[in-house]
Amino acid sequence: MITSTSNDKIKYMEKLRKSASFRREEGLFPVEGIRMVREIPKDRLVQLFYTEKAYERYGAEFGLEVETVSEQCMKKMSDTDTPQGILAAVRMKNYTLEDILDGDDGSPFILVLEKLQDPGNLGTIIRTAEAAGVTGIMISSDSADIYNPKTIRSTMGALFRMRIYISDDLLRDVAELKKKGIVVYAMHLNGEEFYDKDFKKPSAFLIGNEGNGLSDELSHTADEMMRIPMLGKVESLNAAISASVVSYEVFRQRH
Q1: Which 8-state DSSP code applies to residue 95?
Q2: Which partner for 44 in 51, 91, 143, 210 could form a disulfide, CB atoms 3.0-4.6 Å apart?
Q3: Nearest CA among 241, 191, 242, 186 for reference residue 217
Q4: pTM of the prediction?
Q5: Rounded CA gap, 140 and 129, in Å?
Q6: pLDDT tens digit sequence for 41-76
Q7: 3-state SS assignment for residue 17
Q8: Are the beta carbons of 122 and 154 closer than 8 angstroms?
């Protein structure tokens, strides 16, 4: 059993938790909690850490060599105040633009997220996207990290099933979507009524930053601009809520 918080493996996992650049460099990210660990595809599971109590309960479940650690070491590696006693190192999966163009029914349905900053919002969008049948997500590289521990928890396992492409040039990649015959819609306060549109054809939806919305530059690449109707004095909706409304209207029309 590892009992020292100065152990190299403990420090390594702690650094994976804290540093997005280190996660990218290593191609690994930490996942904690039995429910989330059960969602990990077996071919991406690299290492498991258990406390003694957790090992007694779950140790034989995954058929992988494990490290047992003290409660103090688990707390050092964990991102939660009350760790569940199980933590995994998981391999990242890198998708390409072509990957997200492959709609299962031949009609791609893509969310394009620009400069999204809140990890919880991002995780909620990923989770909702899976539920609503989104075929792929494109995220600007200056958005929150999809492997941030808060993002991972918010996805409730959808992170392991959604095709997510990190774009270092949204303008270029949105232009490529249009070349492929995908209609691009910008969610914008100056747009037309959202519920008047037909989304059965291949579609992509641009959703912007929580504070500032879409950049003018990206908005102008869209075929059409649309807005979600709002009553009262509300000026805008949370990015995750906007993505949810959009996703389920597409789901309703297609199913």
Answers
A1: P
A2: 91
A3: 186
A4: 0.92
A5: 17
A6: 999 999 999 999 999 998 778 877 789 999 999 999
A7: helix
A8: yes
